[in-house]
Automatic annotation (TrEMBL):
Name of the protein in its database record: TOD1/MUCI70 glycosyltransferase-like domain-containing protein
Domain of life: Eukaryota
Ranges of Basic and acidic residues composition bias in the record: 577-587
Keyword Transmembrane helix attributed: yes
Sorted UniProt keywords: Membrane, Transmembrane, Transmembrane helix
Organism: Malus domestica
Transmembrane segments: 62-82
Pfam families: TOD1_MUCI70
Domain TOD1/MUCI70 glycosyltransferase-like: residue ranges: 192-505
Biased composition (Pro residues): 519-533
Amino acid sequence: MTGGSLGIRSGSYGSLDKQLHNNINSINGVLPIQSARKPSKMLKEKERLFHWICKFAGRKKVGMLLLCLISAAVFVWVLYVGKGEDGQDVVSVGNISVNNSITLSISESLRKHGPQSNNMTFSLALPPPPPAVFLGYTLPPGHPCNTFTLPPPPADKKRTGPRPCPVCYLPVEEAIALMPKVPSYSPVLKNLTYIYEENLSRKTEFGGSEFGGYPTLKQRSDSYDIRESMSVHCGFVRGSKPGRNTGYDLDEIDLNDMEQCNGVVVASAIFGNFDEINQPRNISDCSKETVCFYMFIDDVTEAYLRTSGKMGGDRKVGIWRTVVVHNPPYTDGRRTGKIPKLLVHRMFPNARFSLWIDGKLELVVDPYQILERFLWRKNATFAISRHYKRFDVFTEAEANKAAGKYDNASIDFQVEFYKNEGLTPYSEEKLPITSDVPEGCVIIREHVPISNLAACLWFHEVDRFTSRDQISFSTVRDHIREKTNWTINMFYDCERRNFVVQKYHRDVLEHMAPPLPKAVPPPPLLPPPPSPPALSNEPPVKPSTETSPESIVKAPGKRPPRRGRDRRSGSRRHRKIVADARDIDSS
């Protein structure tokens, strides 16, 4: 029998002669020793030690001594290895969590798979990839904002209108540290593009405009069929870039500056010189450097700001960077104002978050604190306050008609159209939805596909029907909720009034009577200088220490009492005296 027939490769496992030699040694009681092609140094030392032990093992005393030493060494080695394995099996690295999802630890490879060689090895379990979306967070236990509750409204019968209420904000530094590093989750919709049409077709059933693209009712219905990838009308239809030959045209320098805004943008608008520009208050230095404050104005407002000296050559009015809008698509300034209000994500393509406030409002809280309180802490992508009084669309429509906000026929047509689509009055069956009517002067958004789609569809309801966006809000929201689990954070109106202060429109301010100047009391009359004494032979008369009231002169520094206060206090004393007289007469 040859080595080839035995299947033995001499190059890998040694020659046949060596194998026969090992078999003979095993018969004589000596363990065979396999050698590789190039035995290692450690193996050679083991062989020498083994031969040395065998040489002296025949002697009785030496053999017993070696046996005891070997037993003790084996016992100590077993204890040491066993203790090391127990300690190393439970070794773990402290968890490192990001968005509560990534955990780094050492796997128990020895316990599960056993040692692979003489050297103990550990296998490091790689953490899962970081999440691609923001999953929210919770404040640590014991944080005061966790137990914060709204106090009951003050019982003031003289003041029954809306008023602000306290809100638990985080400090600006903490709010900035909690800013999400990745976008929030967008249910169903992942990719949203916008329709561009150079040659518009005006074959629409009713409503619409060139700026909006005249979408048909079929296109409107398709836009509510939420899919993973969608292309919808979203204003700026006639131009390849929003603000460039689209209607609502902007200067190239403004477009370039707006593209550089890649974080948070605070936007507002004043058209027709309708309001005064209100400067934000309580803004941190970090927000002044990192937040974009943009005020959209028209030619009329720009002319007023320049002639009044409020706007300089840098196009800034205080903290606001003004942007002049040319060729507005609507003659109604209120409808034109819906473009920066609802389509801010189109004009700021790189911004992640936006805060819209009406031109009549004054911002009094830092934007990062507002975003943390109403978006990030709630894990929401769209936040808007509910109306302080009305929560039903039908009631809101009647209130708009009574106040003359729009012509009654158009409002009735819009409400009837929504009613045929399934709009019903608000009831408890719609819970957890708490209202169908928003107070739309403030909108807080994260620019993710689903919230951008909601803003686009809401704008086209305003473009097709009336400009009263409170009437169309619930229709857009409910259509999207039918296909997704997307929710909107509708917070209390009193919370909105905590971070914005409402001012009067310019026409109201001009018709208001100027405040009366404070009445300055006339200076008291000085006594006439005493006349020189007449020469007389009569002896001088000593003046009396008693003086009459008529001769008392009040000190110049003392103010006389107010007339109104005197009348009120005198009338009270008079009423009290009369009441006492009645009591005396009755007794």
